[in-house]
Amino acid sequence: MDEEERPSIDELRPDVPFLPNGDVGAGDQFGEPLKPWHLATTPRGISAVACIAIFLWVLSGMIVVVPAARLAEDIFCRRHYGRIDIDPIDEELCKAEEIQSSMAWTFGLSMAFSTIVGLVVTIPYGVLADRARKPVYLLAATGQLANVAWSLLVLRLWRTLPVELILLGPVFELIGGGLTMAIVVLYAIISDVTTPENRAITYFFSSLAANAAVFLGPPLASKMIEVWSPWVPMSSSIAATALAGGIVLMVPETAHSLKSPQGDGNWFGADERGWQAAIISRLTRVFYNSDLRSVLKKRSVVLLLLVFMLTAPLPMGMGSMFLQYYSKRFGKSIEDAGYMLAIRGGLTIIVVGILLPVLSQCISSSSYIKIPAFRRDLVLAQASAAFSGIGYFLLGGPDFVFLISGIVVLSLSTGIGPLGRSLISSLVEPSQTSQVFTIVSIVEGIGSLPTGPFLAWMFSSGMRLGRFWFGLPFFFLGGLGFLALLVLFFVDPKPGTTGLRAVDEDDRI
Predict the structure, then answer these.
(1) 3-489 has which CATH code?
(2) CA distance 210 to 52
(3) How far apart, in Å, are the Cα atoms of 421 and each of 13, 372, 373, 507?
(4) Radius of gyration of the chain (CA)
(5) Would the CA dihedral through 32, 33, 35, 41 be positive or negative?
(6) Neighbours of 97 (CB within 10 A)
(7) Percent share of the chain, pLDDT over 90
(8) By the 8 A CB rule, do 18 and 282 touch?
(9) pLDDT tens digit string along 133-155?
(10) Alpha-carbon gap, residue 253 to 233, rounded angstroms
(11) pTM for the structure as a whole
(12) Which residues fall within 8 angstroms of residue 117, CB to CB, at 6 or more apart?
């Protein structure tokens, strides 16, 4: 595969491992007759709706992080002190080690359960979504809405229901696959209606939409709490989730009932062979394909899969764990911690929207620096892994200056995920990319699975040990970043061939 034919940092394909990427022109027939409520029927219009939906999904998740942490802290605090009245309780009393430890374990276990559900349902619902995108998307939205509503109900009725019942929330994601599946379907819809030439820029705008929501969500929630109460952003999350689910009704069905062009009996024929047979066929293609297994024996591919496993837990450090750490260590309110998350969100927009594209383009077009695309992406991935390690170690430092420095440095590590996908996709044939991304998703799920409880244990241990060890969870995440960097140093910068052409030193992008 020639250098110019494979995706790079400038032209990344998203992780859509279970859904085919058909190229659909503006004049192609949709998978359903047009209805009066189909307001977006052009590729650009449908892509815009998908980007708005991605913004709303991420916003619904980010706007709930701060109020959920504040409400959980208040509930555990009242239970700890035996306070069941409605009078306000001093937030400083809620920073006791036992209270914060209970919170950390609850959120950590919730993340683990959500990961388990994702690993179980993504392939089956991916098979269904191949036949029709919108029904699966609406199911996923329903499951996610039920998850958020259940959490809200448990937090509201804490005097009657044990707050630990919030752990049952991810069970509702069995309906449609929840947020993860909804995002996957949205990327598939974008892929359906865009050409390869326009797809990269559409994914770029979808990434900016997601990062804009990351930037706006926490400070908006913090402001709502200060002006009104935590229930306002919690209710706003339900509204954003419902809006994100319903907005897909504005576009027609984009999936086409096509047979596999290769005629290899894959899951395109699910409606004729039965869903169970289609799912088994998909798993067989992923894990028992002889050509794919030969590719997976390549050292660089195995090393990159290890990098995905090591880096999958890294985003968990900038969620509820950061809110608790900042609030406990520096004696600040959880609302203040929400504003701190906005700093990283804003810097991430600058990195993703400006710095990485400009840096990549400068390296590619420079007449003085002639670096093949694979080596360029490898260097950028190594830099991102190094920034992850440095950033998290700074974040766990002893004072506020270290914390701010860590947030700034961490914003430079944003590209590790897409860069890794760019690298691994260059080592396989285009027909094998979907299967490899399937394995990447599974590996990331395995890497994320124990992280939530493990971070909770380290946070509790750090509080007990005190002083330097307060930042123990972030030292662990920083160590994962440095391990990923070490592994990336062993990835061959001149990938060999397995049915592929070796990368030439003088190749230009």
Answers:
(1) 1.20.1250.20
(2) 9
(3) 8, 16, 13, 20
(4) 23
(5) positive
(6) 12
(7) 35
(8) yes
(9) 888 899 999 999 999 999 999 99
(10) 32
(11) 0.79
(12) 170, 171, 173, 174, 178
